[in-house]
Amino acid sequence: MAKDKIKAKIQRYDPEKDQKPYFQEYVVEIDRELTVHELLTKIHKNYDGTLAYRAYKCFKGMCTTCIVKLDGKTVRSCATRVEPGSEITIEPAGGGALIRDLVVDFKKM
Amino acid sequence: MDMKTYTTDVVVIGGGGAACRAAIEVSEKGLNSMMLDKGRPGRSGATPCALWSIQAPFGPRGRDQRDTPEQYFEDMVKAGRFIGDQNIAEIVAFTACDRILDMEKYGVHFKKYDDGRFFQTPMPGQTYPRSCFMIENGQHMSTVLAKEVSRRDNIQVLKDFFVFDLLKNGDVVVGVIGMDLLTGELVAVNAKSTVMATGGYTSLWGFSDNPPTLTGDGVAMAYLAGADIVDLEFNQYYGTDVIWPPSVKGAVVLYELMIDEFADGEITDKDGNIIIEKPLPIRDEAIKIIFETIKAGKGTPHGGVYFDTTLSPKGEDAVRDVFKNMTPKHYKFLIDAAGIDLAKEPLEVAPASHYQCGGIYINGRGQATVEGLYACGECAGNFQGANRLAGSALCDTQTTGAHVGGCSADDAKNRDMLPADKSNLNEKKELVNMFLSKKNKSTRPLFIKEEILKTMDQHMAPFRNEKGMEKGLSLIQSLSEQLENIQVPEIKRYNFELEEALEARLMVDAAKITFGSAMFRKESRGHHNREDYPDTDNKNWRCHTIVKQVDGKPQYSKRDVIYTRMKPQD
Ligand SMILES: Cc1cc2nc3c(=O)[nH]c(=O)nc-3n(C[C@H](O)[C@H](O)[C@H](O)COP(=O)(O)OP(=O)(O)OC[C@H]3O[C@@H](n4cnc5c(N)ncnc54)[C@H](O)[C@@H]3O)c2cc1C
Ligand code: FES
After folding, report:
1. What is the pTM of this model?
2. Which of B145, B157, B182, B447 to mutate to test the interface with A (most CBs of A within 10 A)?
3. In chain B, where are the structural domains located?
């Protein structure tokens, strides 16, 4: 497949230094359809090491630790695919206190 | 960096099945404990990824009245190729039923016959069908256990908490030091007993069906604290994990489901020839067949074999029902993440890293060879031997978890609280500063981790030889020299790269001693296949491999296996 792009607007926020959350746009080159989780991993590795998201999880659809809001809808990022060429918005999900970027403090178990 | 200190009777590291069960037992004994988990208890580690199968010899209360704890014990010893310590195997086999009943009491749902007996499935290596059936699989088991933990006031849980070293007072382990990822604080937990329940080292390998968190931290920390580590050469590979497409690489599909009672499909080579005959072999034999098929040039386009249910005489709908009933979440994940319907099309699968048979050496009470330290579950080492049976691992988490948790609590009652040595604490703080400080030529921990995984995949596969392992070991050694070049950003909250840096430090040690152990054992047995020593050598090697740190260097030796009920016949 020829190189294609995904445009991802991702919510960033570090309560230690930012007044309020803002969006940052990443244009990511991809060569196949991938999961939201794969996309975040790619951004963290190749574009921006400071992006906080939960990378410690099962990758099997089992733990729901990977949930994010994709275009407003809460999804498991490891089990949700994005098409090459699409434009998406990713925000934190889960309702707990915002720790940084996409990471929230999951409520007591 | 600021440091916070907690004090408790018993500190348990981990949040999987073993950690939860150990903490529950400490609580039953009326002592306080803290449970520290890199992720979120009940949702981290291998336990939530597991399937339905947990062994217990219920006999007349289960599917086959002939089954007994003695038979379970015998099956385990044989599958372990006679190098599992039998004093601990006895604890697993003889307390399994009671622990399953505990789980049921906590709220895990088991499939039953109408008359109340436990429904059990047959799995390779079980003389009688012995795998109890958890209806909602490991995922439900782990959330139920975590809930039981949270119900108890004398257990305090810290989640998103990465433990990176043990603390010592002289030769005694007196707790741990870690980082609270949510706040960015360094935290010391001072305790009378310290229980490792950190799971396996399976994700030291790139192609693994385990969560990437399982990097052998517990083994590495115990090793660095001077404890004996045992049999690390026996990493169980699982035969049929998805190799393609990449979005679901490492997802497990069970070859054990291919028996006629279930899906009745086949494992085939690229031309559709059946390669695994029924009755199905146990795991070490299954992976050998698959590797040989691939080596002989009969592998699929992406280097695996086919998991093919379309060959089942039962037809697509019946096969789909099997997956939907037995492993519903695993089945649906492949559909969601890759658009693959297991009942409809052959899937490319290959052996991937699955389970750590070795680990921290423990005695019959779960004590490591360093005072104050205990281990249970997958990170404990010397009872599986060279291979493990399906459904044994989850059973270990409950049996050894409860037993070792209980012993650690009993001992804590008779132990004074010792503070950590000041110099010891300062050393650990320095470590964190080292990764935060500016470097001229810096690297990211991610790159070091990736190299470790690649090296393990390449040189520590189930078939290995001296030359390859020497190469692998020297690569790991050079990676360990690069640790000091790591530089991570100074971020307070959720500094994931700092965690990865501390993790990489432990990973190089875990990898190093895995290579060393595999080079030390000059024979083939169970999951350790030496191309240069292809035969099993019972005369010289029916024993444990022990590695221990002496003057900063690994020292390898043999140790006799403990036989109680069943001595090898020759
Ligand atoms: C896909 C899959 C399917 C399986 N299916 C079955 C099955 O059907 N039957 C069966 O018997 N077995 C099965 N197994 C094996 C079984 O699930 C595991 O052996 C078992 O769950 C291990 O439990 P544990 O509590 O010892 O470790 P884990 O459940 O792996 O838990 C380890 C815990 O330690 C934490 N941790 C690790 N390092 C640190 C650190 N440095 N600081 C703080 N916390 C840390 C982790 O976050 C985690 O909470 C399967 C395994 C996999 C991967
Ligand atoms: S990573 Fe566990 S559900 Fe997505």
Report:
1. 0.97
2. B182
3. 238-354, 422-537
